[in-house]
Amino acid sequence: MPGVNLNDLSGEPPDVAARSLRQIWGLGERPIKNMVHLLEAKGTRVFALAENTRTVDAFSLWRREQPYIFLNQLKTPERSRLDAAHELAHLALHKHGGPRGRKAEEEANAFASSFLMPSADVIAIAPRVYSLNQIVELKRRWGVSAVALIYRLHKLNVISDWQCRMFNIQATERGFREREQNGIDREHSAIWQMVMTALWKERITREHIAKELHIPAFELDYLLFGLASDQCKSVSENGDGAARLRLVPDGWPH
Ligand SMILES: [Zn+2]
Asked: pTM for this one?
């Protein structure tokens, strides 16, 4: 498993922290192809939320110097990427507490926006924007929602207050807050696939792992993005009211 490579950036302004982390990780100004793979390569363990619920977007925690992120698979792929970047902000900026509540959330949102859409790249690619259709075309480059790109373009003064308002109204009218047009594929873990394959070669099955963890096998399937079993699809489709996330976070849950 990759070792943890995540600096403590507590106290830094969110946009500065986002730029610093990009620099430390050698990302420059390039768009991030896959947030889950990036996080895993830098030592964060990424899981899918076992208890699929629309009320929890995602959460993160440090436990024994190990960062964890849980992502809700009911969100759109674009939203899930933004959630991953938002949780990364909490791990890097709020490891030792720091601001709580609204201020922490605003910081995490600002970090996520800067991290996924670096200013120099956005301004180079989209120096002028005239229509929502243009935004729908452009957003795939950064793997974000139309609404997230509108917010970023406004923040960078590429679009005016008036344009921002108009594009947001149009985005709502066209149902972009529920589903994306010109959307991207959902991101999955790369690590858990490798781990499960390696364990399987040692004849360690998902049932064995689930037993060791004292969780039902279908819950393990959920956590590992449905990679542990071929049957996981039917489990998730049938649903199961008994499924409950049993991990008790001791770090930064929200
Ligand atoms: Zn948050």
From this structure: 0.86
